[in-house]
Amino acid sequence: MTATQNKLELLPAVDVRDGQAVRLVHGESGSETSYGSPLEAALAWQRSGAEWLHLVDLDAAFGTGDNRALIREVSQAMDIKVELSGGIRDDDSLAAALATGATRVNIGTAALEDPEWVAKIIAEHGDKIAVGLDVRGTTLRGRGWTRDGGDLYETLERLNSEGCSRYVVTDIAKDGTLQGPNLELLRNVCSATDRPVVASGGVSSLDDLRAISELVPLGVEGSIVGKALYAKAFTLEEALEAVSR
Ligand SMILES: O=C(O)c1ccccc1NCC(=O)[C@H](O)[C@H](O)COP(=O)(O)O
């Protein structure tokens, strides 16, 4: 993170399952609520002033296929920055993800199961690679958050030493629940790394975003917002205004 940054970045989320924009609860397959066209959703966030889009291929994450063509279409239609996540685990899926023009890609499972490959792509692609640390308690979860993948802080130490440039931290217990972010987890991760952290999961109100903003001096750079926007708890314009000072 640059020393001058003091405003929390917001990344509205578009999670894609079977061609539709959906929200999950706790990231569980089968808990989907559908919100229609992913492209329409993404364009709506862009029109509302988003500077970032967090775009997730849930089928690729769960291993139930993929939405590659649609993800590419959405990413390429954006004038704003795109963070792409879901099922990026090998050279082929990484090449497809980078070819969408995404600003950065988020590696989850592979960071737990294939450390050598992840060290290699971090060395090759630098800050185009973020690592998603998806946790229950302090246990990481991979394969669409369905399998345990080791200890959060041990993995963080390894990734720090490999030069990982950014972490996207999700408390799975909070994700899609509108129960508020896990601020303690975010504080703890910031204490364990000097790399920027993007918060994810649980945002329910403008006060939650203000509370995450308070963590910017500790290293929290941004916050993903999903369910709260789709449930109309607030508008993206209101959220951007809330974090603008
Ligand atoms: O990002 C992934 O790879 C992923 C894999 C499996 C299940 C869910 C996954 N991502 C979900 C998200 O990134 C959510 O969009 C995000 O955490 C927003 O959460 P919320 O604001 O609580 O809806």
Structure in words:
With 245 residues, this protein is α/β, with parallel strands linked by helices. Helices cover 36% and strands 25% of the residues. It is built from 11 helices and 12 strands. An 8-stranded parallel β-barrel has the order 1-4-5-6-7-10-11-12, surrounded by 8 helices. A hairpin with a 4-residue loop joins β8 and β9. α1 packs parallel to α3. It is globular, with a radius of gyration of 16 Å. The two termini are 18 Å apart. It binds the ligand O=C(O)c1ccccc1NCC(=O)[C@H](O)[C@H](O)COP(=O)(O)O.
Order of helices and strands: EEEHEHHEHEHHEEEHEHEHEHH
* Bound compounds: ligand LARABZUK
Fraction in beta strands = 25-35%
Shape: globular
Uncertain regions spanning at least 5 consecutive residues? none
Q: Which radius of gyration do the C-alpha atoms yield? A: 16 Å
Strand arrangement, major sheet: 1-4-5-6-7-10-11-12
Q: Kindly, what is the distance between the CA atoms of the first and last residues, rounded to a whole number of angstroms?
A: 18 Å
Helix content: 25-40%
Secondary-structure-based class equals: alpha/beta
